[in-house]
Specification:
Helix content is 10%, strand content 0%.
């Protein structure tokens, strides 16, 4: 995914194999407009994908590929205007 995060510069469309077994960290947007803004501003540098690395708008939203059920497979989000990520 394209992102302003400096630690992911040059990694757009990369697929990294990781193993997770938890349901923590689910991103929740009580206001759908906030989620739309995060997506529009490309503030999601990392997302879960399936075994084929599909990230073409069909990013996995179900277990086991997305263990916490975050919308659009979101793993991290950036603060607007900030190019680092928080854990």
């Amino acid at each position: 995914m394209e992102s302003p995060a400096i630690m992911f510069k040059g990694m757009t469309d990369s697929t990294l194999g990781i193993w997770v077994a938890h349901g923590e960290g689910r991103l929740h947007f009580p206001d759908p407009a906030l989620m739309d803004e995060v997506l529009r501003k490309k503030l999601v540098p990392v997302a879960f994908v399936d075994d084929e690395g599909r990230g073409d708008g069909k990013i996995s939203q179900s277990y086991p590929f997305n263990p916490n059920g975050s919308p659009f497979g979101m793993i991290r989000a950036l603060y607007p205007g900030w190019t680092g990520i928080w854990p």
